[in-house]
Amino acid sequence: MLNYFLSMPDQLEMKIDEWKSLAPDIVRIDSLDSYSGDTVYAISLSQFSNNDKPAHYFAQPHAHEPAATAGMINVIEQMVTGKDLFGNASSLDVEHVLQNCVLTFNPIGNAQGRSKAPVTYWDGTQYTNDQLWCWMRGEDPENPGHMWERFNIWDDRKLNAPNPVGIVYEQIDEHRWVEPNRTQLSTYFKLFFKMDAQYHYLSWLDLHQTEYVDSEFNCEILIGVEGSQSDLTHEHNVDWGQSIVDAWTAAGYTPYPQPHAVPYTGEQANYFKQTWGELRKRIHIISTEVKNNAQDLSPERQLRAQSLAIEKSIEIFLSQIKG
Ligand SMILES: [Zn+2]
Predict the structure, then answer these.
(1) How far away, in angstroms, is 256 Cα from ligand 1 center?
(2) Helices 9-22 & 66-81, crossing angle to 10 degrees?
């Protein structure tokens, strides 16, 4: 266990208690319970006042991508204490950030799935990618050793589902399961809409991980699918994404050189537009991907890549709202 890599629900809850007692004036906690009874948290940070401040959302939907969680916890820690989880002073002017905006973090979008994960981080020493993917979507009962199908939503009465169910899925009622970022029925989305009614977010960084099999890259920024964005939003998202890419390069990562569209077509692209299309018309939304489950990118480096993307996003957001 790595004491700086915090990704499980009980680890997050411990930090929430700590943050609330250290800085009750700047930390606000909202939450929703999922059908399974697991709690999903939104942690908002600001010097709250009567004036509405511009607000930025950060979230992660996928239970098998724990460095996204650990990176968020590392940034919240900086906002509360001025130091990161390694004891180093934050690169951000914390006072200035909290004075000028609201930051909301949902560090574990699918708490049910995450609590069933076999490890707190995936470092490539204990599980092959095929094994990780069987944890993610479940092992296909008809094709042992291989992961099951990808569904936005599925009903366990109608399909020969894996047992146990893959951790990427969240149960939303007695029989139905969803991939959280692919339908607004998930707790991940319900919590977003609850928070958005209060803070009216202008930007959303969604944090992810992927395995980069046979790739020269170990991180990238995704900016929607082709044709899914208005030109104005698109241009801003490219600039925002590029500054994260540049920060990663400067920190020794090998990112895909430009922010680029999600390479989805057909059904995959349609889900994306249906679930995210309207939101993308009014909120700047981009995603990180950071290499998961490989021995050439340690858990610490995974965490730091996500943390850096968040820190850079906060900088960009402040410069944007200052005009
Ligand atoms: Zn993901």
Answers:
(1) 17
(2) 10
Q: What is the pLDDT of residues 227-255, one digit of tens each?
A: 655 556 788 999 999 999 999 999 999 99
Report the CATH number of the 9-116+180-321 domain. 3.40.630.10
Which strands form 284-291's sheet, in the order they lie side by side? 27-33, 39-45, 102-106, 55-59, 203-210, 284-291, 219-225, 260-262
Query: How large a percentage of the chain has pLDDT more than 90?
Result: 89
Given a contact cutoff of 8 angstroms between Cβ atoms, the answer to whether 127 and 119 are in contact is: yes
Query: Which pLDDT tens digit goes with each residue over 281-290?
Result: 899 999 999 9
Q: How far is the CA of 61 from the centre of ligand 1 (A)?
A: 7
| Euclidean distance between CA atoms 245 and 260, whole angstroms | 11
Report how far ligand 1's centroid is from the alpha carbon of 141 (Å): 24
Domain ranges of the chain: 9-116+180-321
Tokens matching residue 156:
């366990």
Tell me, in angstroms, the distance from the centre of ligand 1 to residue 133's CA: 12
| pTM (2 d.p.) | 0.97
Task: For ligand 1, an ion, list residues with CB under 5 A.
Answer: 62, 65, 208
Q: Is the dihedral of CA 317, 114, 8, 2 positive or negative?
A: negative
Q: Residue 210 Cα, ligand 1 centroid: separation in angstroms?
A: 7
Question: 77 CA distance to ligand 1 centroid (A)?
Answer: 23
Strands 55-59 and 203-210: parallel
How many whole angstroms from 47 Cα to the centroid of ligand 1? 31
210 beta partners? 291
Q: For residue 99, report the distance from its CA to the centre of ligand 1, in Å.
A: 31
